[in-house]
UniProtKB/TrEMBL annotation:
Keywords: Hydrolase. The keyword Hydrolase applies. The lineage of its organism: Bacteria, Bacillati, Actinomycetota, Actinomycetes, Micrococcales. It comes from Promicromonospora aerolata. One of its GO terms (molecular function) is hydrolase activity. Residues 286-328 form the GCN5-related N-acetyltransferase-like domain. Pfam families: GNAT_like, Hydrolase_6, Hydrolase_like. This is HAD-IIA family hydrolase.
Amino acid sequence: MTASAGLLASDAPLATAYDLALVDLDGVAYKGHLPIEHASASLAAARSGGMRLLFVTNNASREPEDVAGQLTGLEIPTEPDEVMTAAQACAALLGTRLDPGAKVLVVGGKGLVTAVRSAGFAVVESADDKPDAVAQGYAPEVSWTQLAEAAYAVGGGAWHVASNLDLSLPTARGFAPGNGALVGAVVSATGVPPDSAGKPSPTMYRLAVERAEARRPLVIGDRLDTDLAGARAGGYPGLHVLTGVSTARDAVLAEPGERPSFLGADLRALLEPHAAPVRADDWYVCGGAAAQVSDGRLRLDGSGIDLVRAACAAVWAAVDAGETVDAGTVPDLPA
């Protein structure tokens, strides 16, 4: 499966064009513990049209049952087997090099402990136990003592596997340090770069697609550097919704490996056809909006999500042709 480097078109609503949605949580289905407008109704409508949902999260601290319970409480009814966590992906990655029964020092929450044990490994708590690997995931209770044990173990030759490398974590109060920031403390102490199971690695997406036996999966996320980069890395089309971390301006300026295939203001985009911008003379036109890069400067005409799509097409084409685009000419683009 290969996703196009540019925006794709879909004459049918995405919910009928694709059979499985791999849905991120924070910034897509909810923000912190708060609902996101239109998320519940849009996902319900997609399900009623035959699209299956599988929630894929870089959060490794919680059990799938806990995640499913939170979603259900936000009027997004979810079963535990419809959740794929970075903890599960981390355990699967450990299994590519370690035999069952190998000792793993777990730094993280109960979700990671459960996933590592369920994969057949022996969980230990000290570097003195000579672990074969360190599995590290975010949890609010992670302490300096645990980070130190991880550093001692990695310094002694243990394989360091991170559930994800997200530097920040969106919460209802703003952005807090994510697992990548905590992993960075261990890396600073050891100088040893870790392997990562979470997005932007496509491991979780691959596992989720295999679990669902899907033929036409669609990734949905709010972060270009994790959700959409993982989609590109795995060759899956990705829908970027503007309800979380990465903005419309970020999408226009995205590196090729982080570009989405579709853009939407929110999850209502699942229920709509998507027009791809077309080139007309020196302009890229989408709906009633148009964008052009001339002498390295972005020019815009129109508004709304179609303007964001046109701007993406114009800037991406210019950059891919070797032209330098002045980022200062790319404004904030409300969708």
